[in-house]
Amino acid sequence: MRIKRIFVDTQMKKDDNMPILFDTFPKLEANIPWIRLGPMNTPVERMGKLEDKLELDSLWVKRDDITSPIYGGNKPRKLEFILGDAKKRGYKRVMTTGGFGSNFCVANAAMCKEIGLKAVAVLVDQPMTSYVKKNLLFNIYCGNELIYIKKKKRLKWIKFIKRIFNPKTYFMLVPGGSVPLGTLGFVNAAFELGEQVKEGLIPEPDHIFVPSGSAGTVAGLVLGIKLANLKSKIHAVQISSYTGYEGIVKLAYETWELMKKYDETISDVEIDNLIFERKYFGDGYALPTDEGIEAIEIIRETENLELEITYSGKTFAAFLDFVKENREEIKNKTILFWNTYNSIDVSNLIQNVNYKELPKQLYWIFEEDIISKL
Ligand SMILES: Cc1ncc(COP(=O)(O)O)c(C=O)c1O
Q1: How far apart are CA 359 and CA 276, in angstroms?
Q2: Closest Cα to atom 9, ligand 1: which residue?
Q3: Helix, strand, coil % (nearest 5) of the chain?
Q4: pTM metric for this prediction
């Protein structure tokens, strides 16, 4: 019922068959590949109970946890462009890589299944988190062909695997699909937010909080926010050591170059709206922090939203600290938390899936007594 309500009420009046980006820059449509993967225009919601708890006025969430009715989160936005490219170029199979709990690999598999492509993922070790088991089983359900390699030997093996899968496979081996093409998904998301501001669904955000892993999400947002003439500052919360401030800015400019190549009217931009928050990273990628765990509990209690420890929990911890520490300055400001974590429940789909369909080296995840973290 809940999903039905959300997808009927997407808040957007525009014909949502095409990315808003193509409405704004029509020359891109002829040159940039794209395929529709879901309703995508996600609601902005006021976090009223949190506002009451903190005695603040304008705290919001962008519900990218429901970008797609099949598997939400930030990945479908990037995959609309990446898989559009794979389809347009006639590929039948798409290979991704990531940790064995990777949200990107599983999102790719779910979206490929929807549009009739095969998926294959090269998985490497990562710290254990609660969503690893669920993602692995959902990978099997979606027909993702899984290859496991030890992290240390990754590069050597990937070269070898590529040779075997060539030439019929589309390789998306940049973590998280954070290439300029995938990043366009979040340039588009910024324009979507701009429309919501124009329609009066949310005041123009002064500050936006978003996780930064492989950087495509935040790079797309900083660029899109500039091109859409919004004033928001983007707080990129570090959740991996993959890239930092410079990497994000570089990817944003590369994405701008891709757009400019096909539409010379696109204005010059200066990426000066990025704040890189290092403080919430803790001891490393996917390792929980006390603040992250506490933040997860707070948003669950107040807004009934589920986050996780790796990305969204740490980001929401940064959001909470910011609003508490700057209480006076932000009294008349709007602060937006961009929820990038899938909230579509796949438990019914995976209940009969057997983990023994995984590569043998991953059986331990289901057989050992692992302490499950949030
Ligand atoms: C839930 C979630 N949020 C945020 C991110 C970070 O996005 P990006 O890799 O584009 O920085 C990821 C990446 O895997 C993710 O799974």
Answers
A1: 38
A2: 214
A3: 45, 15, 40
A4: 0.94
Distance 43 CA to ligand 1 centre (A): 19
Ligand 1 atom closest to Cα of residue 102: 14
Q: How far is the CA of 173 from the centre of ligand 1 (A)?
A: 15
Structure tokens at 292: 């992250």
Say yes or no: CB of residue 213 within 6 Å of ligand 1: yes
- Assigned fold of 2-74+180-338: Rossmann fold (3.40.50)
Chain segment 253-295, per-residue pLDDT in tens: 999 999 999 999 999 999 999 999 999 999 999 999 999 999 9
Interstrand relation of 59-62 and 93-99 (parallel, antiparallel or unpaired): unpaired
Intervals of CATH 3.40.50.1100 along the chain? 2-74+180-338, 76-177
| CA 55 to ligand 1 centroid distance, Å | 30
The predicted-structure confidence for 124-183, as pLDDT tens digits, reads as follows 999 988 899 999 999 999 999 999 998 777 788 888 999 999 889 999 999 999 999 999
Tokens 């949190």 correspond to 50
First to last CA, the chain: 26
Look at the block and give the residue holding tokens 């976090």. Answer: 47
Residue type, 165: F
| CA dist 68 → 242, 254, 328, 343 (Å) | 27, 27, 37, 10
**Tens-place pLDDT, residues 169-188:** 999 999 999 999 999 999 99
Count of C-beta atoms within a 10 Å radius of residue 1 = 5
- Domain boundaries 76-177, corresponding CATH code: 3.40.50.1100
Q: Could you please report the per-residue DSSP string of 40-53?
A: ----EEE-HHHHHH
